[in-house]
Amino acid sequence: MRTLIRITAALATVVLASSALGLSGVAHAAKNPTLVVTELPAQVRLIPGESILLSLSTNRTTGYTWTTKVKGTKKAIKVFEGAYSAPASADGMVGVPGTTVWSIEALRRGTAVVDIIETSPGGEVGKVSKLTIIVMKR
């Protein structure tokens, strides 16, 4: 019974987090994501048809950008283009970070690794973070 309560509480946290992040404006975002990932590196297991949201803090005023590259079983998942959202309440402050959110959908069995690549304003590749997605059969 305690495990069920913990799972229910965790799901409620994900729903609240997705509401707080303002994910309604994310292009192609799943209506009911299975999970919202906010820290990398991470590993998730999904079944075909499930989706997750990857949400990372982004400060556009620095000129740094995020890009994604899928390795492994590329056809196991679909990564939709990231959508940037400004902070809900910046009170006119310049340089306050917002959030970039990617919707990722599990399509078929396999293991894919999504590299999240940080690029400087000068084009130099910086930090590369990894999200491993294992898509299991139904």
Class of secondary structure makeup:
mainly beta
The average pLDDT score comes to 81
CATH topology: Immunoglobulin-like
**Strand segment tally:** 9
Sequence of secondary-structure elements: HEEEEEEEEE
Number of helices: 1
Describe the structure.
The chain has 138 residues and is mostly beta strands. It has one domain (2-135): Sandwich (Immunoglobulin-like), CATH 2.60.40.2020. The chain has one helix at 2-20; strands spanning 35-37, 42-46, 51-58, 65-72, 77-79, 83-85, 98-106, 110-119, 125-135. The strands form two sheets. Strands 1, 3, 5, 6 and 7 form a five-stranded mixed beta sheet that branches. A four-stranded mixed beta sheet has the order 2-9-8-4, with no helix packed on it. β8 (110-119) and β9 (125-135) form a beta hairpin. The longest helix is centred in the first third of the chain and has 19 residues, at 2-20. It is globular. Residues 1-25 have low confidence and may be disordered.
